[in-house]
Amino acid sequence: MGKLQDWIYKFDKAQEGPSLRYARLPSLGLILLTLWVGYDRRCYRGMASPEAMDAAQVARNISEGKGFTTQFIRPVSIHFVKQRNEVRFGPAPSGSDADYARLRGNHPDLANPPLYPLVLAGLMKVLPFRYEINLVDPFWSAPPLPPRGPDERPKEPPPRRFMRYQPDFLISLFNQLLFFCTLGLFFLLARRLFDIGVARLSTLLLLGCELMWRFSVSGLSTMLLMLIFMGVTWCVVLLEAEANEPKRSPSFQFGLAGAIGLLVGLGTLTRYSFGWVIVPILVCIGFFTTKNRPALCLAAGAVFTVVILPWMYRNYQLCGLPLGTATLAPLEATFLFPGNRLERSLDVNWARGWSGITVLMPFIHKLLIGLRHILQNDLTQLGGGWAGSFFLVGLMLSFLNRSLRRLRYFLTGTLGVFMVVQALGRTQISEDVPGVNSENLLVLTFPLVLLFGVSMFYTLLEQINFITKLFRQLAVGVFAVIMCLPLVAALLPPRTHPVAYPPYFPPIIRQTAAFMKEHELMMSDMPWAVAWYGNRQCIWLTLNAQDDFFAINDFLKPIRGLYLTSLTMDSRFLSEWVRAGEHSWGSFVIDSTVRGEIPRLFPLRHAPTGYLPEQLFLADRERWKKTPETGSFAPDDEK
């Protein structure tokens, strides 16, 4: 027993020695690098979110000098652009070839805020993005599957199998770097507000959060927005401390207020819904500062307005909506426009025949359903772990530090605002890609929730009398391991397949899009993937295969190809095919595949082999046939 106590004593003294402190930083760097490489080798998965592909293809257009334009065309965008041009220039004369819908050239992007695509465009200018499919490098491809028997052995070595799309992977690496920058800012903030133990454990748990790693490889703007939110939190903490115990000139406070407005404005230009965080910020400035309250609030609000106003003016000039088609997000997924019906509509008159309080009914109904889902699921599972539970319990603690109390008030107010905004902004995206999507605003607060949750854990730890410091550290270690178990489980076998199939398989998408010329128009049920992987203009599948299809094909721009994937082919038979109506795309698929009869007046009547039963591609001619002279696809319609 005496030898055990001596060993524990020597261990405690060794931890306080300089040698361990000097070796800690390289060790942490090695652990971080090992985790980074290991996660990307075992858990990386290509883009699975339509929003990520949409932002990436807009960024490529910017990098190629096409401006804020998109190849992912939403029918609702056509409606508002055409309507706005008719208001500005008058109705187009009969027989005129005026392109009021902006389809014959580059269609303006009205769905994405500009900052994240602009950052990605700069990245595409700096890094060697290769948009062709790489089947030579072993990192981007895998060996072909072995033959099942001697009769299946090919005479020539078969090509390697596709595994990773290089631009997707580079975007993921960039977002992971943003995640590490957020970790650094978070550690400095935790070290300022708490002791070194809370700061280290909080940073370690944030690094070990499996949900954060999934966001980092998703291609979404979440990591950039989380970094901005961390900067906003820093400015709020500094402004609160400086306003109550001034150590610098009053101009420093106004500089911090301006920095807050600038950062919130940049966050709004990254994700529109983030702009609502200005409400709890202005409330905190008004309550937490002792002098110049109106002036500080005015400074933050004015800078915020100046930052976002030019982009809102641009959107209004193009479509009459200050936030573009994102302005309609509260209407999506309501009983008026279930699913993605709104974005696929060519005509939006939702309030026709409504008046008074009944106009608000869709929003009230959606808000109540959304809040119910958040309270029952998202809030209790905040961050994908148990930190949210520790935080909710920790709300009852009373901190002696005034800055901590006020930061907790700011965090609670931000959570309340984000809950309302997330409930109203919830669309079909949250159903198709649950958890890891741009509509998840609560995840932005996870670092601060984690910080207060760890402080709650340490408060409980102080109530236990450990016989030695080693046992206390073991308890902390066990807590850290338990919190990081989801990430550990993700790293264990079986290995995650890097291709997000179904439905996204970049080689097939790129091959199908290659049948089209650069300025020809396709229609698909996943136009975001065609725009990103295929680099072709593609419109989202209209609500029906009759009136809406021909309204575009006959009067706006001819549709040269129709590409249906498992999103349509594998949809629900009764609710999405039979009950959708006589001219639904489900009925079209049944006629085309089961009966073998394409509707008589439908202009796309040629189909290549190899697509059915999972996919269907129709074109205006046999574009997949190659000319014997050039060995390439026939470029002209008459061939």
Structure overview:
The protein has 639 residues and is mostly helical. Among the domains are: 168-346 and 358-491, no CATH class; 503-619, no CATH class. Helices cover 54% and strands 4% of the residues. It contains 25 helices and 9 strands. α3 (50-63) crosses α5, α11 runs antiparallel to α15 (402-425) and α13 (361-378) crosses α15 (402-425). It is globular.
List keywords for this structure.
disordered C terminus, 9 strands, two-stranded antiparallel sheet, five-stranded mixed β-sheet, mainly alpha, 639 residues, globular
Strand fraction band? under 5%
Output mean pLDDT: 86
The residue fraction in helices comes out at 40-55%
Q: CA-to-CA gap between the ends?
A: 92 Å
Question: Which structural class matches the secondary elements?
Answer: mainly alpha
Helical segment tally?
A: 25
Strand-helix topology:
Layout: H1 2-15, H2 18-42, H3 50-63, E1 69-70, E2 72-73, H4 75-89, E3 107-108, H5 115-126, E4 141-142, E5 161-162, H6 166-193, H7 196-207, H8 210-216, H9 222-244, H10 250-268, H11 278-288, H12 293-319, H13 361-378, H14 387-394, H15 402-425, H16 428-432, H17 446-461, H18 469-483, H19 485-491, H20 506-513, E6 521-524, H21 527-534, E7 537-540, H22 547-555, E8 559-564, H23 566-569, H24 573-578, H25 585-594, E9 616-619
Helix pairs in contact: 3-5, 3-21, 6-7, 6-8, 6-9, 7-17, 9-10, 9-11, 10-12, 11-12, 11-15, 13-15, 14-17, 20-21
